[in-house]
Amino acid sequence: MKTPSELFQEQHRIDKRIVLKATNLSVSMGSDQLLEHLTVEIQAGDFVGLLGPNGAGKTTLLKVFLGLFPPADGDVEVLGQPVHRGHRKIGYVPQKIHLEQDTPLTARDLVGLGLDGHLYGFALPTKRRRDRITEALAAVDALSYQHAAVGQLSGGQQQRLLIAQALVSRPEIMLLDEPLANLDIKSANEIVQLLGRLGKTRNLAIVLVAHDVNPLLGVMNKVLYLARGRGAMGPVNDIIQSEVLSRLYGYDVEVLRVKGRIIVVGGQETKGTVEDLTGCLHCDGQEQTAP
Ligand SMILES: Nc1ncnc2c1ncn2[C@@H]1O[C@H](COP(=O)(O)OP(=O)(O)OP(=O)(O)O)[C@@H](O)[C@H]1O
Ligand SMILES: [Mg+2]
Questions:
Q1: Which residue of 121, 125, 278, 290 shows the fewest CB atoms closer than 10 Å?
Q2: Of 197, 196, 223, nearest in space to 210 by CA
């Protein structure tokens, strides 16, 4: 007997196949075990918020899916195939890209770089290349500054271009590592809404690393929370719960819901260390509050 949601998906031909899968994944960093026996499944159309404290392994997990970091143990599949480097169907926006003011690239040049890495030396014909860049710029509403020097653009505009760069190869999966860092609340919300629309219209799987859950509320459908080598994944309201986070962190964590916002507050230590938790799990000393 099919559930109403399965019937809806079938009737509307929504493709929900698993596009990223890690089974029993363990990752070591030197002598440290960074991730232990993590099992994760991400479907086409999922918008996953990847959360967790500094050093939890969020960036490393993205690199495992990109084939850039070999796991110590476990299986990793991308679109049903064993993971490998340089997958054309994954768009990646790395953490901490800093574009100097005098970077000698226009917005179009920057987006075009997203084509070059995947083509194994076979350049697209000039017109097709131009069209693909225009398509990606249009997808992020950046056509109006396509000829501007990238170093002169605002943080929000640069972030749109980096997303366009990841989109230009027409990926099925987007991995974005803290794309909201350094953006003001309005720009962060715009980027999240933009990604939400792109995800829906293209049935993209999106994994977005963030430290504050609030800008993602209403857009992400799942959370993958990493801490102390372990992970919890599921619908937002199932995972961002005091009991679930306390279990993950190994000490009391309280989740408060105030006016549609989520505030995560660290409490008394029961096990492990609380060094990275001073009133707030995600925001380095500030309270995680509403934008
Ligand atoms: N190339 C490397 N060599 C050695 N240690 C590394 C390397 N890359 C990451 N690490 C270590 O692995 C751990 C996890 O790092 P990772 O960057 O994945 O964390 P993160 O969850 O993304 O943290 P943040 O929120 O600060 O970005 C950290 O302790 C980090 O110091
Ligand atoms: Mg990181």
A1: 121
A2: 223
Q: State how far the Cα of 191 lies from the Cα of 179, in Å rounded to an integer.
A: 8
Q: How far is the CA of 64 from the centre of ligand 2 (A)?
A: 13
Which stretches in the chain have pLDDT values below 50? 119-121, 269-291
Domain that holds residue 78: 1-89+171-239
247 within domain boundaries: no
Ligand 2 center to 228 CA (angstroms): 15
Q: What is the pLDDT of residues 202-217, one digit of tens each?
A: 999 999 999 999 999 9
| Same domain assignment for residues 156 and 175 | no
Residue 50: predicted pLDDT: 97
Q: Which of 239, 259, 277 is the last residue of a domain?
A: 239
Which tens digit of pLDDT belongs to each residue from 142-189? 999 999 999 999 988 999 999 999 999 999 999 999 999 988 888 899
What residue type is 269 in one-letter code? E
Is there a single domain that holds both residue 176 and residue 73?
Answer: yes
User: What is the structure's pLDDT at 14?
Assistant: 67
Q: Note whether 165 and 185 are same-domain residues.
A: no
β-strand partners of 265: 254
Same domain flag for 15 and 63: yes
Distance CA 128, CA 25 (A): 40
Say yes or no: 164 and 179 in one domain: no
> Residue 58's pLDDT is what?
96
Residue 238 has a pLDDT of 94
Provide the domain count of the chain.
2
b/e per residue 208-239 (b: at least 16 CB within 10 A): bbbbbbbbbbebbbbbbbbbbbbbbbeebeeb
Q: According to the model, what pLDDT value does residue 267 have?
A: 59
Question: Which of 169, 198, 214 delimits the end of a domain?
Answer: 169
How many angstroms is it from 59 CA to the middle of ligand 2?
4
Pocket of ligand 1 contains residue 52 by CB under 6 Å: yes
Ligand 1: atom nearest CA of 226 is 21
